[in-house]
Amino acid sequence: xxxxxxxxxxxxxxxxxxxxxxxxxxxxxxxxxxxxxxxxxxxxxxxxxxxxxxxxxxxxxxxxxxxxxxxxxxxxxxxxxxxxxxxxxxxxxxxxxxxxxxxxxxxxxxxxxxxxxxxxxxxxxxxxxxxxxxxxxxxxx
Length: 141
Fold this sequence. Notes:
Layout: H1 2-25, E1 32-41, E2 44-46, E3 55-58, E4 63-67, E5 72-80, E6 83-86, E7 90-91, H2 100-111, E8 113-119, E9 122-127, E10 132-138
Antiparallel strand pairs: 1-2, 1-3, 1-10, 3-4, 4-5, 5-6, 5-7, 8-9, 9-10
């Protein structure tokens, strides 16, 4: 009996590393790709200029990747029910005239994600405890 209990306790660290990945694989956002339509923060509404698509893709391994107005970015994410948490994003380091302020706002908004809602082909991410909303359209490319 003591051997069995010691064996189970020895496996706990391994099981705890596997559990988050398994839980994340079952979420509704896994393997979906989205294109930003607008970012609403108070009275400010920002829509990407069309120079480049602003995208967000949720992968099965708990990673989120995409294209901001200038740079490619990556972060980790978790979903529990309609709660979405994302890490601060890492990104490439290009500089693009006229879009860097919007890029910074967009990446900060992702890091402050709180909840999400799916309505048809639309994904709404509320961030900053209601400070703003990112509105995406499903990208089936």
